[in-house]
């Protein structure tokens, strides 16, 4: 029995350790390139190409989102940031169904910012022991500029009677989105959620037509569902969260805490009876998740995989009981109180079980203090937890079931390679040509890009009767910018492949380059 128990623990440990290392703490595609791809590329030409590609992608995302804002003040876009599970590297991916959890974007408004002085003056008021706030405008120029987005508060003083309306901001964004159309696939069919008191505007994107091809798959997966959150940048740190800065902890260290304060915070458009906006610690959470060790991050993904795999069996109302923010909060509290030196491969199973135990305790007691504001209980109004607790407790002691959940939810590196090759089988054509001709040629790789583009155009003709042209000007400009770095890199790669795989001699000029 002891031997069997050991083997079960070992299998669970291996399942956790085999989880892929996903980019985390990245707010832009260029961040992903800079931190996780470019350092692994030895050739300077490759580094230049991927840096250019990341910058162009960021530019495309910003320009696409900017279409949903006005060209004149005040409703303009300052910045767009990746947020949520994609930013944290905990997004759920199912390669079999070609689906992925929602992609969250934080849209930072231009022409307005909350300063530390605004906090001190009371222009940003917080409902006691909550994360909800009201933003009052007292500057006459700002009041005039944002007049269409203001409402008068009956509860405020004379000096602070004019407050910004989150509902009016979201209504303008939704109106602009519906008018302009889909953000990334211009001819897609999209459902845009009505404006409510929640923080985001959800969009579900579906490509037209019924035919499923490799081209339709890559356009639909993984960016099919989006959550857009309008946010306002705030300097400094919330006055209501000062306790977090100095409380005793094992993690994070003071340098990380200082970096978090310097990055500031946001307020997002989530309305409630307690305030028109909600404090967002997305910047802080990004830095904290980025500073997790690989073992901590894999354990976090394993924890989310366990919950995601079984949650629908726990309750038909599970979305109103457990959300991803609860799991992140549990993880942050646990990391804060655990010694970083205790995070070893041998103890990783124990850490995962402890996270599950903390989830059980929070649900049982209906008490989960917000990480940055412990007086705010995230589970205070929760109902229907008793049955859920019983089912989680039963699974908690079934290590085999926990292991199966992780294996089912987490694609490994071979799964990813097979998926990508099956998704775009044409990517191998330049290599096949090189072997047949006994010469790897950069022009063959460039031609493959044009061939792929033609396949996409063919798909759109069949599915929608026309080719999307909305982004043609930007696309051609981006291709012209990328062409130089791409050809330099492929020329370098082809020379290396000719030398290594085809035993071609190195020319003198190539030796000088190296």
Q: Examine the coordinates and then state which fold CATH places here, giving the name of the CATH topology of the largest domain.
A: Beta Polymerase, domain 2
**Arithmetic mean of pLDDT:** 89
Under CATH at level 1, the class of the largest domain stands as Alpha Beta
Question: Which architecture of the largest domain does the CATH hierarchy give at level 2?
Answer: 2-Layer Sandwich
Describe this structure in words.
By secondary structure, this protein is α+β, with helices and mostly antiparallel strands. The protein has helices at residues 2-17, 29-37, 44-66, 84-88, 116-121, 140-145, 166-180, 214-220, 242-246, 254-263, 282-290, 294-314, 324-337, 348-365, 386-396, 399-409, 413-423, 429-437, 442-464, 472-501, 508-513; strands at 77-83, 93-94, 99-100, 103-109, 124-126, 132-135, 150-152, 162-164, 189-192, 200-206, 225-234, 265-268, 277-280. The protein contains 21 helices and 13 strands. The strands form 3 sheets. Strands 1, 4, 5, 6, 9, 10, 11, 12 and 13 form a 9-stranded mixed β-sheet that branches. Helix 1 (2-17) packs parallel to helix 16 and helix 13 (324-337) crosses helix 14 (348-365). The longest helix has 30 residues, at 472-501. The chain is globular. The model has no long low-confidence stretch (mean pLDDT 89).
